[in-house]
User: Fold this.
Amino acid sequence: MKKAIFTALIIASIGIQFSGFAQTVGRKPPKLSLTEYSRDKDDGTLNFEVDVRMADCISYIELKNEAIRKPVQVQVNEKDYYVSEENGQDILLRLPVGSLKEFLKKKEILPTELTIYSKTGKPIYTNELSINKADLINSSSGAWR
Assistant:
């Protein structure tokens, strides 16, 4: 009986150690930002950012909402991974996902379902994001044209 308990404890401790090497996404909340906003066209590029534990483990991200008929799938490449400027240690996935008009159509605020898929094709992260046009425009880092 003692051997079984001891063996179970060893297996559990090894499992806990190796879980630290698993792909982790979204320790911090994912961010949407707007760049290249044009006031004349009332449009800009919608960008997505999330922290990851390892680079090149994500195949694609998928965004769905009621304004777009087919879910938008954005393929992830190695060039989409960056090291955080804040601390120089965190790995970030940053990529453009499309135009603001494409995602919102005529709406001002729209809940959007986010799913991140691993290289094996399995969903590893799901969350609901809110695309708020006014907030994105106000925090836009792009030049006003």
In short: Confidence is low (pLDDT under 50) at residues 15-22. The helical segments are 2-19, 100-104, 133-138. The first helix runs from residue 2 to 19. The chain has three helices and eight strands.
